[in-house]
Structures are given as structure tokens and as C-alpha cells.
Sequence to fold (446 residues):
Amino acid sequence: MSSRAPQDTGRAAQRLWSVDEHLADVLAAIRPLEPIELQLLDAQGCVLVEDVTVPVALPPFDNSSMDGYAVRTADVQGASEEFPAVLTVIGDVAAGSAELPTVGPGQAARIMTGAPLPPGAEAVVPVEWTDGGTGGGAAAGMTPASAAPEGAGGEVRVHRAAEARAHVRARGSDVQAGDLALAAGTVLGPPQIALLAAIGRGSVRVRPRPRVVVLSTGSELVQPGESLAAGTIYDSNSFALAAAARDAGAISYRVGAVADDAETLRSTIEDQLIRADLLVTTGGVSVGAYDVVKEALTSVGAADDEADGGRMDFRKLAMQPGKPQGFGTVGPDHTPLLALPGNPVSSYVSFELFVRPAIRALMGLADVSRPSVRAVLEADKALGSPAGRRQFLRGKYDAQKGTVSPVGGSGSHLIAALAHADSLMVVPEDVTSLEPGAELEVVLLG
Fold:
């Protein structure tokens, strides 16, 4: 990282950038991570980079969906409790059985759930439709084979008829060999991991989850669990953003608060580059005398020379909260870095608008932003908004009613209100007052 004196970043720092312009610049500089082969559990949360087809049908053989008896339908036709069908039990068929008995006329095989349907059998009658081989009334279940091996022989009385294929899962009824199991671009969650395992895949080719390092700055910050001294506050931003990065699909690393010292910050960032696909800082990007992120990184950002390891721009955006923003790359690998403001709500809103899309882009996803809906404002009074700024207000969205209500005020420090919000209400740049009953865009956070 360069240690040259800070330079003026020029007109970029003087104009007001729109939210859309800044996001476009961020995404233009992001490249999806290179694919790697991972074992199934390691691939959870990752994005497939290739189509996966089914090599074998699921299930791979006809099998029973019940514990009961494999029978021929002709042998149980007309069976009832008064006139049961009496069949000879020729053995057990358990799940995983390789050697299967052949069910002939007047015979039945005791069969377990998931076990292959034996030759000759056409249906399965649940054990509850039989006497379970006891000679009594309807059975509630089967006696364990280890406790009563004789249950695999003798006779069974069947009290109900069964149609052909009753309680039989057909081969390929889930998926057929050659079917598309999962398409490239799929995010692998537990159900997808289960499917991959079921078709025999031990590993898959994916884009890995991005590694995101979060650093908060400020000499006033104290770690939760420690005692507060005069003029200090607890560091909530790094926890919020590390959790938000994880929620977006990344592997997140939280670095304890860095004091307001440019050299210390530069050194800390250099140390973290080894484990970062993306760096996020919070605080120190405004115009104050102790805004160290801007001081520490401007020297890197002003450089056009590739050897300096990156380029940073610090901007003012036409938005509220979150006006001061920084973005660029640092280090020899040109690792992306997003510098967010330090007020809690400002940093979180900025994360949702810019960092989350960057994480999703690193994962190789096409849809990078939160979903949004149109909703009707439900409020006691009109909501004011500064002219020329896109305002993001915390809201509570009611999907059934199609309404959204404000939560707390517009202050960028009101973190308690943020904890009770599930959405962001978007007031456009050309709107200064939004009356109750007006329709507006709502970004869903859940």
C-alpha cells in the first residue's frame, strides 16, 4: 500500500453522485470469483458454475413406501376383516437387501420402507391392514426382526384389498437419468445438497463464498462486554456489517475497531488483504479532521500507476442517509474496498445498497439486489424529504394489506428503530413530501 502524501482526487470528490451511478461503478469493478471444486458440505451457500445432470434414476428401483407385506393383487382381492386373505410369509425384505425372494401365488414377503419390491409382488399392504402374523386383530406395527426372527415366516392375514402398485414408489418417480438436477447459477442450500448427495455427487464446481473483512474505525469505539469510559460508545457497526455480509452469502471476518490513526489503519488493511476478497470499512469518510479512512487511502486512490496497488475515489452521494462514500481497490491484487460512513443507520443502508450487491456479484449471481415492492404509505402525517436526495427510511411492511409504516425518525444514529424495521422506504430525489396514502417503493430486508 502506498505511503505517499494524500492527493486531491479531483472533480469526482466535488460533484454529487446519484445512488445508481455509484452502484454501477461498484459493480463495474467487481469480477466473479474463480470457480473451484468443493466437497458437498463445503459448497453450501456457493453458486454452481455448471449444470448437473442425473446419472441414475431416483429412486433407482421400485421400492416400498410403507412397512408391510409385498403381495400379488389377485391374492388379496376381496379381502376383509371378516374374510381375510391368508398368505404364506416367505421372508423379509429390508432396505439395502440384495437377494430378494420371489413372491408366488398365495405368498407374501414382509417388506420395510425403502426396500426394493421383490419379484412377483405387485403391491404393498401396510402392516396395519394385517394381523402382523400374530393371528390376532389389526397390527399396530412389526415386531423387530432381532426380537422375533420367526416373524419372517408363518402366515399373515390381510384384511383389505390392494390395487396394483399400491404403496410402491416407482423407479425414476423423483428424477430420471439424464434429467437436469440443478442448473448453473443455483445457490446450494440444504435441499440442493441433499439432491446432489442422492444422485451420487461427492463434490461440485462452484464459485466460493466471498471472504469479506469488516473494519470499523474510531478511537471512541469500545468492544461489547467492556466498560464504557467518558466519551466512548460500543462498536456496533462492525458486528452489524459482519452479520449482514454473512446474511448476503459471504464468509465474514470482523476486525476490532481501529483507532483514528492513518498509519495504523493502513497497516491493518495490509495485514487483512491475505484473507479478503472484499474489504469494508465504516467511519472516517467524511470531512472531519479525524476521518482517517479518507486520509489513509487517498494516497492509494489517487494513483493511476498499477504498481501502487489500486485506486480509491471518495464521493458525496445524493442520498440520505449515507452521503459520504468511498470505493476502489487496494493491494497488489486490487482487492475491492468499500468505505462506508460511520453512523449506524448510514452504514447499514449503504451496505444494503452497495456492499450486498458487490458480494452477490462476486458470487456470480445475476440478481444482486434485495427485492422491492410497491406499497401504500400508512402514516399519521406526511413524510418530509430533502430536495435532490434519495431518502431511505426504515419501515414496517404489511404484505397482506400492501402497506408500509415508518419506524422511528430519519436520524442516521437511530439504531433501535432499525432493529424493528423489515424494509426501507424509498423517497425519490424529486419528492419533498410524501402524503399518507401515497404509493412508494419499498426494499424488503427480510
User: Anything to note?
Assistant: Residues 1-10, 300-308 have pLDDT under 50 and may be disordered.
